[in-house]
What does this fold into?
Amino acid sequence: MAGILTIQLALADHGREEELAVALSEERGITVVHEGDLESSAHADVVVTDSAPQDGGTPHVLWGGKAGDGTDVHASLPAKTPVEVVIAAARLAAAGYRLVGGKSRRVETGDDLADMPLPARLHLSAREREVLALLAEGAPNKVIARRLGISVHTAKFHVAAVVAKLGAANRTEAIGIAMREGLVLI
It folds into this structure.
């Protein structure tokens, strides 16, 4: 998911749609379009809706609605879910992840990461929690090292430890797991 992320909003509740549009306008690297605004040649990376999926291929984040068959639904969130979590779910869905029943897994893999035990995840050291918070901000290893006053090598070590303890395949998945488990707030 490189470049600008295009999120299409298709909510029947126009108040919630406007609230989400305002929050998204403050996010870096996101373009917001509303239902019907896309030209035929344009394509949204993810759709946030409260009704049935609109097409057969674009990941959908269902925000307080019924999923129907759920083939395109990559995340189903309760209506009371905070806007910040909806935005995070949209980013993860656009990156190819599904958040189903409180679990996360990459769509393309055959492994069901939802069944993986994560016993060590709640035993992150204070430094690992600092690193995790910086990862959630999108900080690369050099920035993590600079902000924590450690070497880049040590930052890489801590990132690898966090990813391993959370049972994640990569940094992005680690952030998704951490968000789901309430270890970080974005």
